[in-house]
Amino acid sequence: MTPDADPQREKRQHLWRLGLLVAAMFGFGFLLGPMYSAICEATGVNGRMKVVASNVKAGEIDTSRTVTVEFVTTVNGSPLWQFSPEQPRIKVHPGQLYTVSFYAKNLQDQDLVAQAVPNIAPGTAAPHLRKTECFCFNQQPFKAGEAKHMPVRFMLDPALPPGIETVTLSYTFFDVTKLAQQSASRPKS
């Protein structure tokens, strides 16, 4: 038997390789969240938006330019909601604040909590959308059968690239009732 053919040594090497593979997979899984956030921020994918509008000076409104903003809504996983924009689209001047409203109704006979997740397309417009008020900032509790008109106050930055003539702002409504109940039942530290 040659020293290179030692079965014990081969098993140890194989176990070391498998251990390194497991450690690499764990490390990749651990870094996946921060990597995803960094990639989304760099590319504008998943519509990362500024939460608060900066102070807008009167001279910053670009009245020479009009951009169409479309509003799209989706309800995830439950047909027992109504959720829609009150206006499917509006024309805006970059730099000017606008308020639009969305309608949502709980069609169930029980109380629910919803969370809206926003997205913006094209992704290159995401850094230029600034919101001062949005129902997507917080979870929205709904009583059984309750309907709400929920405002969104926003502006498009005048620095929006000139080639962008249409921006789509979409919201997906999720039922987060169980998550909200779990969060409320946890002791506060």
Structure description:
The protein has 189 residues and is of the alpha+beta class. The chain has two domains: 8-43; 58-184, Ctag/Cox11 (Pfam 04442) (Sandwich), CATH 2.60.370. It is 24% helix and 35% strand. It has two helices and nine strands, in the order αβββββββββα. It has helices at residues 7-43, 177-185, and strands at 67-75, 81-85, 89-92, 98-106, 112-121, 129-134, 140-142, 147-156, 166-175. The strands form two sheets. The protein has a five-stranded mixed β-sheet, with helices on one face. A four-stranded antiparallel β-sheet has the order 2-4-8-6, with no helix packed on it. The chain starts with 6 loop residues before the first helix and ends with a helix. The model is unreliable at 48-58 (pLDDT under 50).
Question: Which helices and strands occur, and which strands form pairs?
Answer:
Blueprint: H1 7-43, E1 67-75, E2 81-85, E3 89-92, E4 98-106, E5 112-121, E6 129-134, E7 140-142, E8 147-156, E9 166-175, H2 177-185
Parallel strand pairs: 1-9
Antiparallel strand pairs: 1-3, 2-4, 4-8, 5-7, 5-9, 6-8
Q: Which features would summarize this protein structure in a list?
A:
24% helix; 189 residues; 35% strand; alpha+beta; four-stranded antiparallel sheet; 2 helices
Low-confidence stretches: 48-58
Number of domains: 2
Terminal Cα span: 64 Å
Structural class: alpha+beta
Strand order in space, largest sheet: 3-1-9-5-7
User: What is the percentage of strand-forming residues?
Assistant: 25-35%
How do the helices and strands follow one another from N- to C-terminus? HEEEEEEEEEH
Query: Which architecture of the largest domain does the CATH hierarchy give at level 2?
Result: Sandwich
Number of helices: 2
* CATH fold type of the largest domain: Ctag/Cox11 (Pfam 04442)
The major beta sheet can be summarized as: 5 strands, mixed
Q: Which bin fits the share of residues in helices?
A: 10-25%
Computed over alpha carbons, the radius of gyration is 24 Å
Count the beta strands: 9
Dominant shape: flat
Task: Specify the CATH class of the largest domain.
Answer: Mainly Beta
Task: Please name the fourth-level CATH homologous superfamily of the largest domain.
Answer: Ctag/Cox11
What would the average pLDDT be, to the nearest integer? 83
